[in-house]
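User: Second chain of the day. Same drill as before.
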Amino acid sequence: MKICLIGYGNIGKKRINCLDKEDELISIVDTNEKLKEEVEQKHHCSFFTDYKEGIINADAVIISTIHNKLAEISLYCLQNNKLNIFVEKPAARNLIEFLPIYNEYKKHKNIIFKVGFNHRFHPAILKAKEITNSGAIGELLFIKGNYGHGGRKKMESEWRCNPELSGGGELIDQFPHLLDLSRWFLGDFEKICGVTKTYFWESKVEDNVFVILETTKGQISQLNASWTEWKNTFSFEIYGKYGKLHIKGLGNSYGIEQLYYYQMKPEMGPPETIIYEYPDQNNSWKLEWDNFKNAILGKEKINGSIEDVYEVLKIVDKIYKK
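Assistant: Same format as last time:
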């Protein structure tokens, strides 16, 4: 495939590092003209500051900009170049901004639209999905999730704390990952109750979100995403009728990625425990790129689709309106 990357930041660089030898990076687009020399020397491709020029001749586009440009670029690519699209979550600042993309996509069923929900591809989460799909812990009952970090000095001056650029705070930043994973394991939610709070950062956006979701079967997902986790944390607990799975850590500052598998004994009491550890094995970015390519080739179903982000944004919209 001939690929154009739009947004040469930290995430964009991670994405292009996952490309295969047969992938041809033909262009990189960024508004910072000072990056031109680095791009041309390191990646041997064209550099543009206008994405409309950069996507010419591309087969697929990776959109890794800040939130305020995600929807605009995705819609243009769908309407004008009909490219396969890999866009970072949350794909838009809000549901209203996303709806034109969703409606336009329906006209182009031959296009693959992938959303960057890389947490689906973390090894511990993939293993948990394998175990739940096998029925080993029985019918799923509820989920508890906690995800957060403590921010950085002067974080309040970053784009994430500017609602015009970001669309909101933690509810649109880290929370979509927790929500997406909850939907992946439990399905769609019928009842939604959420509260956003700004406790610490002097910002116009929330630094904490607390949410309870319920499926039509009565399954609950209890979630908290926070910018006041003074020790970076990822915890995702899946409770089944006959056991429990607990995913801890995501590597790096979040700690070693682990999956604790607690299997109930027939006589109950303390469960059998199996611990899976994945030190330095986070290849989620590469696995997600492989899924995108294989979906284009018709080899597998897209994992993290336009439908998934549509459902996530609907819930985010309801919480912000409460």
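The two ends are 44 Å apart (CA to CA).

User: Great, on to the next one.
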